[in-house]
Design goal:
Number of strands: 21
Radius of gyration: 22 Å
Largest sheet: 7 strands, mixed
CATH architecture of the largest domain: 3-Layer(bba) Sandwich
CATH class of the largest domain: Alpha Beta
Number of helices: 13
CATH superfamily of the largest domain: FAD/NAD(P)-binding domain
Helix content: 25-40%
Structural class: alpha/beta
Oligomer: single chain
Distance between the termini: 32 Å
Number of domains: 3
Shape: globular
Length: about 525
């Protein structure tokens, strides 16, 4: 199959890019691939909202920029922060024009919420399902575009470069180019090639590398792992954000945790330990609305001191009707577990939430591999630095979806479909005899990462993690070479690569900064640097 533009991922980043390209160039064929159904994305699970300066009487670009830089702990790229914050409101209005709804007050004006690390109310939201509403609007818009083809249940295995033409490709190779991808078709069970003039990777996050995450099952870091294998540049993978308040459910040890959005704390929710103490003021003057890295470490410390598995989010003092109106899904979820938020505190614990690092890109979203763009959580644009400010992620995805589109329009006509790409060679492989070899390895990986490479790290823990990852890598590569491919095997392989990148980046950072906290180097270094692998 050939296409002019290939988009991997159907979240806000990928669809923004696809819609803009389709509208500007009706002569181009745009193909969007997703590995499950089209709306199963990280975007769909974004509860909180989009941060943007909409009320210039009380807010300003300078305030939002300063909040972002403070959260990023010295590692944000100031140029990128300036771009995203100032271009964000325009991109947001485009999403609204495409049909996305956001909550309004009785006066018809948008309700603006406040979250941790923000100095002003600037979060635009739709109930507690903002991401789901945006995804709905974008998919509806994509369905109207005749030159956009969405293909679901198509698992991308690897991106195609000169390597597949027999050329030795290393990280030092100049002008590596992307010609398309190899994909595993779920319907035919065949590995096919899709060739393109340009490709965008918007494959989302990697939360499934940890035992408990707010990310959906699909968040296995596929895009980052593929680019690393193709000798592209990966940056700042040590900065994994743990959301402080995932719903704690007794007996649930693995998988996706239900997120309790930070907006609940923005509306007045208070974190308390098992003694009932409002403990956050002991750690930060901003209390329960401190940035996520500070709150997550504080909760982790309280749990260890008291020997608890969770802390509590106290909403009992909040207006019941307002809570139900603003957070209907959270209210219903808690009620289904016997938690009446007006009478009971909500048990919460940190869970892996967001990767601040990823595929290193420039100001136009271009990766170190030519003809290959990346945006959304898979990319490291320079916006987040060492810690993402709440609700900046959807904003970044919109801005860089647009910037990738702008650059594509300037460049695409000089490219052609590459000829001579070989078919996938599956000779000598057979069906796996025991799926337990794959599923158990995934669990081992998740336990290793959660126990040794979590909120608090040390040299000893990182060394142990790397040894266990080496063994898992060796076993999995043997499976990869001898068995026919399945999505589960490919995801395991990608997750091991992600784990390796997180550990190696953490080992290189000899300091504690932002989301990376290590017992061996508890203070910040004066030398500011990004870790590029």
């Amino acid at each position: 199959m050939t296409t002019d533009v290939l988009v991997i991922g159907s979240g806000i980043a990928g669809l923004t890019y696809a819609l803009k390209t389709a509208a500007a160039r009706p002569d181009l064929n745009i193909t969007v691939l997703t590995k499950t159904n089209e709306d199963e994305t990280n975007t769909k699970y974004a509860q909180g909202g989009i941060a943007a300066v909409l009320n210039e009487q009380t807010d300003s670009f300078d305030k939002h920029i300063e909040d972002t830089l403070i959260a990023g702990d010295g590692l944000c790229n100031p140029e990128i922060v300036d771009i995203v914050i100032k271009e964000g409101p325009v991109r947001l209005r485009e999403i609204i024009a495409w049909g996305a709804e956001f909550d309004r007050g009785a006066d018809g004006e948008y309700k603006l919420g406040k979250e941790g690390g923000h100095s002003e109310n600037r979060i635009l939201h739709y109930k507690d399902v903002t991401g789901k509403e945006i995804e709905r609007a974008l998919l509806h818009q994509a369905d109207q575009c005749k030159n956009i083809t969405l293909i679901d249940y198509c698992f991308v295995i690897d991106i195609i470069t000169q390597h597949h033409l027999g050329v030795l490709v290393t990280k030092a190779t100049p002008a590596i180019e992307c010609y398309g991808v190899y994909v595993l078709n779920h319907e035919t069970h065949q590995i096919e090639k899709i060739l393109s003039k340009v490709t965008l990777l918007a494959t989302g996050g990697c939360g499934q590398v940890y035992r408990t995450t707010t990310n959906p099952r699909i968040a296995t870091g596929d895009g980052v792992a593929m680019v690393y294998r193709a000798k592209g540049r990966i940056e700042n993978m040590e900065f994994i954000q743990f959301h402080p308040t995932a719903l704690f459910e007794p007996g649930k040890r693995f998988g996706q945790a239900f997120l309790i959005t930070e907006a609940v704390r923005g509306d007045g929710g208070i974190l308390r330990n098992s003694k009932g103490e409002d403990f956050m003021p002991r750690y930060d003057a901003r209390g329960s609305l401190a940035p996520r890295d500070i709150v997550a470490r504080a909760i982790d410390n309280e749990m260890k001191i008291l020997g608890d598995e969770h802390v509590y989010l106290d909403c009992r003092h909040m207006d019941p009707e307002k809570f139900k109106d603003h957070f209907p899904n959270i209210y219903e979820k808690c009620l289904s577990l016997g938690i009446d938020i007006h009478k009971n505190m909500i048990p919460v614990a940190p869970a892996a939430h967001y990767s601040c690092g990823g595929i290193k890109t420039d100001a136009m979203g271009l990766s170190s591999i030519q003809r290959l763009y990346s945006c959304g959580e898979a990319a490291s644009t320079g916006l987040h630095g060492a810690n993402r400010l709440a609700s900046n992620s959807l904003l970044e995805a919109m801005v860089f979806g647009h910037r990738c589109f702008e650059h594509t329009l300037k460049e695409i006509d000089q490219y052609s479909i590459q000829s001579g790409i070989p078919d996938w060679n599956a000779a000598g492989t057979s069906d796996p005899k025991e799926m337990i070899l794959i599923t158990q390895s995934i669990k081992e990986l998740q336990l290793t990462m959660s126990d040794y490479v979590g909120i608090v790290r040390s040299n000893v823990r990182l060394t142990r993690a790397l040894k266990r990852l080496d063994l898992l890598h060796e076993e999995t590569e043997q499976l990869y070479k001898t068995t026919t491919l399945s999505p589960q095997l490919c995801e395991l392989r990608n997750l091991i690569t992600i784990g390796y990148l997180i550990v190696k980046s953490a080992q290189f950072r000899k300091e504690s900064r932002g989301l990376h906290y290590t017992l061996d180097y508890p203070v910040k270094s004066e030398l500011l640097q990004n870790i590029v692998l």
